[in-house]
Amino acid sequence: MLNSSLYIEKHPLKAEDIQFRKIYLSALASFIQKYEGAFLPEHQALFDLYQKEFIGSNISLNIKQSDIALVLTYRRKRFMFISSDYYFFFDCFFILALGDKQKGKRVLLLLKKNVNFLHYLNAKALYKKLYDSSSYQLKKVSNELVYSWRQNTLFKEDLYYTIGVVANISSGKSTLINALIGKYIEKSQQMACTAKIHAIYNKPFEDGYITKSDGFLKLGINKEELLVDNPHNVDNKIEVYTYFHLFRQRKIVLVDTPGINSSLHKEHEILTKSFVESEEYDKILYVCNICALGTIEEQKYLQYIQRTVKNEQVIFVLNKLDDCNEEEDSISDSINNLRKELKIYGFKNPVVYPVSASVAYLSKKSMFNIELTTNESKKLATYESFFNGPYYDLSQYYNFPEKEEVRQSLISKFKGKEKYVDLFCHSGFPYFEFLI
Ligand SMILES: Nc1nc2c(ncn2[C@@H]2O[C@H](COP(=O)(O)OP(=O)(O)OP(=O)(O)O)[C@@H](O)[C@H]2O)c(=O)[nH]1
Ligand SMILES: [Mg+2]
Question: In the CATH hierarchy, which fold is given to the domain comprising 161-356?
């Protein structure tokens, strides 16, 4: 449920008056209680969001069992020819039994006990449509809702692929994660060290909602709730669920870890090492900061990774290449030197991807029309002034056969945003995202 994309924006209840919305939510709550005995935390969180979106959080709801019958017979205002029972049944299946036919059957049986026979037949037709993919046309349920069901259930079938992101302090782990997602999810700033393990899960499609589990579970959190960790949560892990822009070849969890620096925050080092040693990941992305290559801290961490993680599970990212200067630095030398150094530490055939996470993050957000802060806009304008030159074209370091096709497909997808697409391609990200 937490990683499902919701369909609230398309929900037919949006077209109803407040009186009917209250009856509908009361009926839904009543049915969930009947099914589960009491609300499970994830149902409670979803219901809280429904309440906020449909009637407002400050209105108290009087839950009455009799409202189930009322909802089913209510003639909808805008679509007089459609009865509301299908949507009610759809919500029941979605909330209690998404993609789980056994549970769906139990929901159907409980509906049978609680609604009259004609309504039950409608519930059964919907059950067949959802769980048996019957091609039978249910005119009364919008295709959009059925489509969202299908996308969610397909997504559920895959296993999550876990990518842990590790590095010394301030190497750009959080910025890199934000760039992969295309949103500001992880706090990223000088000295604001990530203090817990943050696991960010993707969802099948954008529904506009972010879920957070941090000692509390909340669907549809706001920016402040996202960026401030709950001080009362004794657990070391925080989970976030959101849709990732562009980076979605598979079902992914990105794990942001606290940056290591031996003279600062010993507890952060212990936490990160416990994650690395847990082996609960498929890949480890080690982020090297171009400005900190060769430091003692970097050497120590790399040697630790070499001893602890299987060679084929480690990918190296050389970040902050926008900080290079054409007159003084050779990017290809930096990449080659890093490879040589990694080999000296014992990594066999190390894979190094050169990127600018910062350019990728800002250009991707602009491609998706996501508003930038004043500082972000200034930074992006600076990147536009120099990063489009050939020296900064990081795509040249990727051995990727269809580079031009990838660029062309982005250009045709993001019409009018060509300059951001070019920055994004120069940042190395379209190829990096594909290759990890
Ligand atoms: N120029 C440049 N700066 C970057 C880039 N990526 C990150 N930064 C900056 O580096 C600083 C640290 O970035 P973060 O993403 O917070 O780094 P982090 O590794 O998550 O840091 P900790 O969690 O504190 O260890 C911030 O000021 C970022 O804006 C990049 O590609 N280029
Ligand atoms: Mg961080």
Answer: Rossmann fold (3.40.50)
